[in-house]
Structure formats: structure tokens, C-alpha cells
Amino acid sequence: MAGTSLDLDALYQPVSIVGTPPSGFAWSPDGRRILFLWNDAGASFRDVWSADAVTGEKRRLTFHGQASPAEQGARGVSEAVFLNDEGRFAYVLGGRLHIVDAAGRDEAVERDKRAVRQLALSPDRRHLAFVSGNAVDAGNRNVSGGLLWARPLDARDDGSTRYLAGDRADPKIYVENYQWAAGGRRIAFTLADNRLMPERDILYYAGGAAQNNRVERAFPGEEVTRYTVGVVDVASGTARMFERPNARHHVWSYGLSGRGDRLFVSESDLLANDHVIWMWDTATGKRERFYSHSEPKHLRPDWQVAWAPDDDGLVILTDRDGWLHLYHQKTARSKPRAITSGRWEIASFTVDRDRRDLLFVANKSYLTDRQVYRVPFAGGAVRQLTPAANGSHDPVYSPDHGRIATLWSDDRTPHELMIVDAAQPGTGRRITHSPRPEFARQTWANIGYVEFPSHVDGKPLVGRLSLPANYRPGRRYPLIVGSVYSDSVRNQWGGRTAHPTALFDQYLVSRGYIVLNVNVRGSWGQGREHNQGLHHSYGQADIDDLESGVRHLVAKGYVDPARVGIWGSSYGGLMTLMSLAKKPGVYAAGIAGAPATNVWHAYPSQMWVMGPPEGSDMPARYEAQSALYHVDKIKDPVLLIHGTRDPVVLYSDTVAATERMIAAGVQHELVTLPGANHAWASDNLAQTRFAFRKMADFFDRHLRPGSVAGESE
Predict the structure, then answer these.
(1) Which pLDDT score, from 0 to 100, does residue 499 have?
(2) Contact 76, 20 (CB under 8 A)
(3) For a Cys-Cys bond, which of 352, 502, 510, 655 suits 401, CB 3.0-4.6 Å?
(4) Can you give the residue ranges of the Peptidase S9 prolyl oligopeptidase catalytic domain (predicted)?
């Protein structure tokens, strides 16, 4: 029962039917113009564009994409930034830095530097800071490498560019990120040290030969990156490092006060249980514990911190009271004052110092939304700035916070650039129109949301539901749950941000499937209790939530219970295999892409969920969360798909899982993608089409989307 007519090969083409979303927004210092990266024809190569914030008029500024055939899939310009209000700007292409003057003359500068990134103009408009370094060395070893530089804007040549931080001799000691101080005289930065982190050889065959992808990769319990925050004076190049009690702890944010006399660092332990903010006197180096909060089952490190107006303490985004909200803490001895509250959550914020307001992104309107709001720093009424229509916004604020450039989308509209005037709340000007003309001629899925209780504990859950365009109530359709993942229920094109498969979802719906995603435990947006439900529970509480969604749709008459499939990649692959192993009969077929089958081989950061690799409950705790120890119980058809070069989830773990299934007599299918990375669905178009065709054929074979189960009562 097809709802629309879509061709998989046609959906995945060098020139995309949905267009190329704009990215890399950067404001001019006066806030009147915005730079962005875009391809108006829908190819992958992005050039630099600008738009007038008042009139909305846009103009293409570079034309490198004209010499790059769409079939090559080149990404184009990676970032750009204005250098003044007259139109001078800098951009990066192929890791090389270019500067374009107001007359349009383009000059390649800093020719001795590679992998240039993180361009930032100083607040006094005197320097352009950037990071450089080689991403991969000749030994085929991943090297993060990063040196921090400051180039005077009046430089006539590269000789006046000043080296500021990072180890020139050892790329394992590198600047991870940085930020300018308010006056433009100093820069705060994070120095990362990977010298103790293990290196691993990922051996595989591709191109008819043996290959080795050597990577820096730690497992739980092993050495991780060590971080130190420093401050460097741009004029002299003199840097001072501020040592923390434990350099292995995560650094979530940091910032210099407006006068530069104080530095905060927001950190947590490796389990994300203990949130601490340290405060230094930058002149004396004296450190004090400014803020701390401990939560033994804390799961998500969504904390953010910024200086309050007039440097009057800190504004802290924390879920200390159950929901992610904003608090003001004036001193180390005072208590946090709540600025916002409610059964909704804030995703990010910025401080408008001049107006003494806070601007933030939240789901106040509905769980699936991300809207921009304003609230007085002193507290008071919350006012929405973005248009009232449901959807998602990812904002970049002008320097004076008077305008907002936002990457906007909703369930039916691919991502576009919109400019919002903060003085006129509720209005926005759409700048780009990215989809190809044929997009409007196509009939797409009907997207909606369903709310239902958990069948285990009754907690409220929300699902994103994609229905065929010609859906007929009373008919029971085959259902595909997935691609399953956390944070997968969002009102934007494709729903998910991680592992996006918007067009494949549309293709499945066009063949007569219903597609469901569930905001499983561990996801953002429903408060601390909801996300803590995943604590020590990979492949347990999360898959119960997925089953609750299936039960709800069956009970409501949407779905044929005999034709339910499930699929996911990475963590979603873990949930898929665990669902098949632990819930026989619920799913008629499942596909696990790059499945994380062995949590002993996860990134150390996943200890937030699964806990440390030691304790009286080990090894049982890790075995309970590892699909490797459960795949021998699978009874229903299963397909595994994995790239051999994957450094995130090792292909050898999939081999171990298949060996266990073979030993247990579990029939399964395995699709190996030679040389493919973790993002196997987006490495290249030929591979994408091949993999999705395999998956669609597998589901069609077992779920029979063309058949009708009959009318419900």
C-alpha cells in the first residue's frame, strides 16, 4: 500500500532534492550582515554568501563550486568570518586561509599552515585568531594537532602572525578550542594532551590490499585526554596555565571575566556525577571552588556557564532541581537563584550584557520544539522571540544581540536560514530556499506526534510518527521503529540530528510503512528523572520504551502486530539487537548498523550511562548492557551492516557477535562495507544507495508492505 512514489536512487543524488542546508553563520561586527555557507543548486560544495539583515538581500561572494563537479561530492568552504563592517572577510577552503577585501580581491595567506580552522575576530577588530595543524600525519595515524595563532588585520604579509599556544613539536598536545576575552587583548584556551591515550590499529581490507587505520582510542578505564585551561596575552605571547585538581576530568566550559581578572572552568568527573565550577584569580593563580553539585545517577552533562552582566557572578544552566534551567550564583558563598523554572528544558543560552537579559533555546512550547526566548536577568516573564509556528531553531546572535540568525526547520521543511529581529518578537525573514523545484511537486509523509505511557512504569513518552500520505484509518500497516536513537523526537526535517536518515525514512513511508521514533530514557527534554532512567541500563529501559510505542500503535489500530520491524545504527544498533534478543515476537525483523555490541569497547564518556569498568557488580553490569552476551537468544530475522574501517564501534566486535550467533545456530545476514567509516550511511552516495537498498529489500521480504492486514474494528 504505497503512500507516495519515491525512488531510492533518485533521492540520493549529487544534487539533492532537499537542497543543501546553509551553515557556518557569522555576523558582521555591526550586526547588519550575515555570512553563511551554501549551495543554491543543491550540490554538496558550499561557497560563501552574505545577506543583508534588514532587506534580506543575499549575494554569493565566492565561486569555487563552479569548478567542482557535483559528482565529486566535495564539501567546499568550511568556515568564514567578517573582518570589518565594510565587507572584508576571511574563509577556509581545503584547510587553507583566504582573505577577501571589500573590492572582492581574494588572497591566499598563511601558506605555510594546514588544517586551518576556528576563525574568530577579536572584539577590538585588530586580530584574526585561528587554529592550524595537520589532521593526519604520514604514518596514517590520527593526530588532533592544533596550534593557536593571531594575525593582525593590518598585516602586509604572514611574518607578523604570532604563535600563541599548542606544542609545535608534538601534535598530541594541541589547542582544542579558545575564546577571546572581552577587550581583545587576551585569549583563554583549552590545551589537550593525548600522549597517554592508547593507540589502536584497525586492520581491514579495501582497494584490494591490507589497510591499517591507526587511531587514538581509549576504552573505559584507560587513559583519556588530559585538559588544562590557559590564558595568553596576544601582544607578548606570554601564556599562563591554570592547573585543575584532576586534569582527566571533563572541561565543559570556561570563560574570562570582562576585566580579565577572573577565570572560571566548569568541569565534572568522568561519570558526570559531580559538577564543579572552579574560579581563579588570573593575577595570583589562587583557585576557589565557586559552585558544586553532586548527583550519583546523573547522566547527561548538559551544563553551561557564562559570566553574569557586569561580571556579577555566574549564570549556570543546570538540572539540579530536576529540569535544565538557568540560575544566578553571585559568589562562592551564595546560593544559586533560579531565573527560570517549569516542566520544560533549556538547551543553550547567551547573556545580553547591555540589556541585562538572557536569550535561550528551549522546548517551552512543546517537547519537540526548539524556540528562542528572552528573560530578564533579574527574573520575570519569559518571551518567545522566534515565530510562533512549531519547529526548531539553532541560533547565532549578532554582537549586540539585536538580531538572530537561526537555522530553522520543521517536520515538513528542510533547514533554512532565517533572520529574526529581537525587537520584533514573533516575526522572522526567511533568507534561503534550498530545496530543488521537484521537492514541492513530491508528496511527502504526514508527520505527527503521539503521547503514551510506558507499559512498564507508566511514565509519559512521546513518539514521532510518519504516516503514508494516503494513510487510511482502520487499516493496519507494517511498522518500522527507527532509526532508533536518543534525542530522536524533534520537530525538524528528518527528526534526528545524530545519524540522520530523513530521505530513507521517507522512502520507507512511500512503500507503505509507518515509521516511529520514541524519546527513550536518556534523551533530552523531559527532565532529569526521565534521562536518569537509562542509568546502568543500555538495552534495558530504552528498549522497554520502544516496545511501549509499538504497543500503543497496535492498540490504536495503526499497526499489524505481526509486521513490526526495528533498526538503528551505533547505539541504535545496540537497541536493535537487544530488542530482538530480549523481546522475541515483538519484532518480525531487525537491522543493526555498526552495532555497539560490547560496552567494554565504548568510549570512556559512555560511562555516564553504563558506569565504570570496576565494582562489586562487575562484570555482570557490563554484560547486561552488551548485546554480545545476548545475541545467541535472537529468534527473528536479523541483518547486520558495518564498515570495516570504523574507529567508533569496531568491526571486530561485529565479527565477535556473528561468531557467537553462528555457535548458537542463530540465522543472520551480514553486509560488510569495505573501508567504510562509522557514518557508513554518508561516506559516499554509491555506498549509501547500496546499503539502503539492502535494508529496504530485507524489510520488504519480512514485513510485506504491499499487503493489507485488514480493517480494524
Answers:
(1) 72
(2) no
(3) 352
(4) 506-704
**Alpha helices (H) in 322-477, listed in sequence order:** 437-441
The per-residue pLDDT for 710 is 54
Question: 62-75 as b/e, with b when 16 or more CB fall inside 10 Å?
Answer: bebbeebebeeebe
Domain boundaries of the chain, sorted by first residue: 442-703
Characterize the bridge pairing of strands 559-569 and 589-593.
parallel
Residue 431 grid cell: 533568507
- Residue 530's contacts (CB-CB under 8 Å, 6 or more residues apart) are 459, 521, 523
Gap between the Cα atoms of 228 and 242, Å rounded: 7
Q: Which residues pair with 374 in a beta bridge?
A: 359, 383
Give yes or no for a contact between 55 and 95, defined as CB atoms under 8 angstroms apart: no
Give mean pLDDT, residues 42-56: 97
Long-range contacts at 433-437 (CB < 8 A, ≥ 24 apart): 433/19, 434/18, 434/19, 434/20, 434/21, 434/22, 434/38, 434/40, 434/42, 435/17, 435/18, 435/19, 435/42, 436/15, 436/16, 436/17, 436/18, 436/19, 436/42
Q: What pLDDT does residue 3 have? A: 40
Alpha-carbon span 602 to 570, nearest angstrom: 10
End-to-end CA separation in angstroms for the chain: 20
Report CA torsion sign: 433, 435, 439, 441.
positive
**What's the CATH code, domain 442-703?**
3.40.50.1820
- pLDDT of 139 above 50: no
Distance CA 374, CA 346 (A): 12
The pLDDT value recorded for residue 6 is: 86
Burial 540-574 (b: 16+ CB within 10 A, else e): bbbbbbbbbbbbbbbeeebbbbebbbbbbbbbbbb
User: 577: burial class by Cβ within 10 Å (0-12, 13-18, 19+)?
Assistant: buried
Q: What is the identity of the amino acid at 599?
A: V
Backbone dihedral angles phi then psi of residue 190, each to the nearest 5 degrees: -105, 125
Question: Which cell is 401 given?
Answer: 544581540
Number of helical H runs and strand E runs in the chain: 10, 42
Instruction: Name which of 366, 367, 370, 333 is nearest 348 in CA terms.
Output: 370
CA–CA distance, 22 with 401 (Å, rounded to integer): 21
Calculate ∠ Cα 178-184-186, nearest 5°.
55
The label of the residue with cell 564498515 reads 643
CA distance 25 to 336: 33
Helices within 260-391 (DSSP H only): none
Cell numbers at 661, concatenated:
550467533
> CA dihedral defined by 480, 686, 653, 670, rounded to 10 degrees?
60
pLDDT at 289: 98
The whole-angstrom separation of Cα 448 and Cα 483 is 16
Q: Report the SS3 class of residue 503.
A: helix
Partner residues linked to 193 by β-bridges = 173, 226
Neighbours of 676 (CB within 10 A): 23
Question: Is residue 280's pLDDT more than 50?
Answer: yes
CA 205 to chain centre: 30
Cell 546553509 locates to 22
